[in-house]
Amino acid sequence: MEHLSAEARAVERTDAPPDAVPDGQSSVDSLDETVLLDVRDVTLRFGGVTALDGVSFDVRRGELFAVIGPNGAGKTSIFNCLNGVYRPQQGTITLGDKRLVGRAPAAIAALGIARTFQNLGLFEHLTLIDNLMLGRHHLMRTGFLTGMLWWGRAKREEVRHRAAVEEIVELLELEPYRRTPAGLLPYGVAKRAELGRALAMEPTLLLLDEPVAGMNLEETEDMARYLIEVRRELDLAMILVEHDMRLVMDLADRVLALDFGVVIASGTPDEVQRDPKVIEAYLGGAA
Ligand SMILES: Nc1ncnc2c1ncn2[C@@H]1O[C@H](COP(=O)(O)OP(=O)(O)OP(=O)(O)O)[C@@H](O)[C@H]1O
After folding, report:
1. Whose CA is nearest to atom 12 of ligand 1?
2. How do residues 188-245 score in pLDDT, each as one tens digit?
3. Residue 74 Cα, ligand 1 centroid: separation in angstroms?
4. CA 251 → CA 8, 81, 218, 226, 268, distances in Å?
5. Is 108 close to ligand 1, i.e. is its CB under 6 Å away?
């Protein structure tokens, strides 16, 4: 299984476009300047529909980067290009020194991109712990046959993976639900378990697809707290697609706004929030 070294995960960019580094913004200034993900000029068409039209952006190591836009703007299409489900007709996507376009979803997951799903990617009949263990499947080296032949090694590997899963359970305060089948988890907890499943993959880049969709205010605030905690504890970058503007503005370091597959603004949350094009397209002139 191919894994990136810490060095290979990130390449120094010296040709960042001027709008990629906004001036005088403390939250951005404190970020690692090293680019982890570079998306250049990506165009994706479905017949006559252009879902993404020359989209470019980059995500730095440890950054929480948000993508916003009205329905049909192209947010999900970006995620599907990043994880190999869609293949753009034009453009490049680079993670560290690895080009992603043309790779299969499993190969991209093995390079360190994990994703949470809006409608939950959990196996309902499996316990929370087993769902998290499955998240680590691609990290496990012992297959059934080698497990039979080298029982001691398989056991040691299982112990190591269970310990890693328990750390995630602790981080996300999921202890009371360890043995609960995923299908019986309360909604807010299931969304957190979904985050845990993705974290169990030990990603370098986590794609968060509407992590607070359908949540009440209390659950949303809880999730925000866990995302902050994950960020503090784990060395990973996140791309957040979310309709909850308060969450985006509170958590994101930088925001990219799309409309009809075109980038209409990018910068700090404040800059994007104030951008007239965003107000018109996304907030319908209400702000
Ligand atoms: N598989 C597909 N086949 C045809 N058209 C598609 C497909 N996937 C997306 N599109 C089109 O591409 C455009 C962008 O869709 P996308 O789902 O990426 O938007 P979105 O910003 O995620 O929207 P939402 O907020 O509603 O989830 C839309 O016009 C959509 O109809």
Report:
1. 51
2. 999 999 999 999 999 999 999 999 998 999 999 999 999 999 998 998 999 999 989 8
3. 6
4. 27, 24, 16, 11, 11
5. no
1-17+25-112+203-287 under CATH 3.40.50.300, yes or no:
yes
Residue type, 249: M
Q: How far apart are CA 273 and CA 157, in angstroms?
A: 48
Ligand 1 atom 28: residue of nearest CA: 72
> What does the pLDDT look like over 5-21, one tens digit per residue?
333 333 333 333 333 33
126 C-alpha to center of ligand 1: Å? 31
Question: Token pair 């605030």 is at which residue?
Answer: 221
Q: Is the pLDDT of residue 2 over 60?
A: no
Cα(270) to centroid(ligand 1), Å: 27
ipTM above 0.90, yes or no: yes
Q: Dig out the tokens for 153 from the structure.
A: 């090694």
Task: Return the ∠ at Cα 274 (arms to 271 and 280), rounded to 5°.
Answer: 130
- Please list, in sequence order, all residues whose beta carbon lies within 8 angstroms of the beta carbon of residue 273, skipping any fewer than 6 positions away: 245, 249, 255, 287
Could you tell me where in the chain the CATH 3.40.50.300 domains are found? 1-17+25-112+203-287
Give residue 65 CA to ligand 1 midpoint distance, Å: 20
Give the ranges where the chain is alpha helix by DSSP (H). Answer: 26-29, 75-82, 105-110, 128-135, 144-149, 151-171, 187-200, 217-233, 245-251, 269-274, 276-281
